[in-house]
Write a structure and sequence with these properties.
mainly alpha; rod-shaped; ENTR1; Endosome-associated-trafficking regulator 1; coiled coil
């Protein structure tokens, strides 16, 4: 009976040691799990912050593109108006040449002013159109970035 008791106590001690070892492993795994959860939460927050930043940039670029579009439209209207004025000045110039109007110098001056205005508008129109194209390229880049983020997010979810 004493031998059996000693044997059982020995087994109980071994089981207690094994139980403590398992409890230690369990605590370590729980700690590692908690660390992984914290890491994943931080990554999710970072990703969310990046998405918000990209969305803000997209909104800003959209506003710029709309502004550039409006500016281009305005410049096109100005261009059309100046072309009409130029046509009128040319008509007046032709009339002056045929002797039906005032001095040739005044007509030449008016035509030069109209031409300068027209060239200014054309230069401004080109600049606005370039800005519009640049804004469209930026929007395309942001759209591609958002697609990448979706793929990263899908891959992250598949890995879990």
């Amino acid at each position: 009976l004493k031998e059996e008791n000693a044997s059982l106590r020995s087994k109980i001690n071994k089981l207690q040691i094994f139980s403590e070892t398992q409890a230690d492993k369990m605590r370590k795994l729980e700690k590692k799990l908690e660390e992984n959860k914290i890491k994943e939460e931080k990554e999710a927050q970072d990703l969310e912050a990046m998405v918000q930043h990209v969305e803000q940039n997209l909104q800003l670029m959209t506003k710029r593109a709309v502004k550039a579009e409006n500016n281009a439209t305005k410049l096109k209207q100005e261009n059309a108006l100046l072309q009409v004025q130029l046509k009128n000045y040319k008509t007046e110039n032709e009339a002056l040449r045929s002797g039906q109007s005032a001095s040739l110098a005044a007509v030449k001056q008016n035509a030069d002013i109209a031409l300068q205005n027209l060239l200014t508008v054309i230069t401004n129109s080109r600049s606005s159109i370039k800005q519009l194209v640049s804004g469209a390229e930026s929007l395309q880049l942001v759209a591609d970035l958002l697609k990448s983020i979706d793929r990263i997010s899908e891959t992250s979810e598949d890995g879990q």
